[in-house]
């Protein structure tokens, strides 16, 4: 398990928000037990649309992006069931990478996998949007046949 001798353990109850999208972030988490759901919320046509990006399990990490780019959180993290998380600071991460340089490659690999998964999700959503537009266009021609 990574970071087993680093950081403190924090516990969260089912449904408890660990952090919100756009919160400042200075730490990442490693899941010791339980699951964490990552979501993004966007306003579209006056309605909040919540998209689940991932549900992570024991051994996975999240919140790492803010350690690298110092930007606000890109998603909301919520406990699914009771969760134990290991808190890892940038200093902890740097120390662990110095001890085990292959850890940097592990992070790059995991982050690349996530980017590819998001790319696939974007492509799926674009295809769905095109299909929906075609359906609406067809419905319009059925509704107003005199304009064809």
Write the layout of secondary structure elements.
Elements: E1 9-12, E2 17-19, E3 27-44, E4 47-56, E5 61-62, H1 65-69, E6 76-89, H2 90-99, H3 102-143
Antiparallel strand pairs: 1-6, 2-6, 3-4, 3-5, 3-6
Strand content: 25-35%
- Could you report the average pLDDT, rounded to the nearest whole number? 88
User: CATH topology of the largest domain, which one?
Assistant: Jelly Rolls
CATH class descriptor name of the largest domain = Mainly Beta
How many β-strand stretches? 6
Descriptive report:
The protein is α+β, with helices and mostly antiparallel strands. It is built from three helices and six strands. Strands 1, 2, 3, 4, 5 and 6 form a six-stranded antiparallel β-sheet that branches. A hairpin with a 2-residue loop joins strand 3 and strand 4 (47-56). It is elongated. The protein starts with 8 loop residues before the first strand and ends in a 5-residue tail after the last helix. The model has no long low-confidence stretch (mean pLDDT 88).
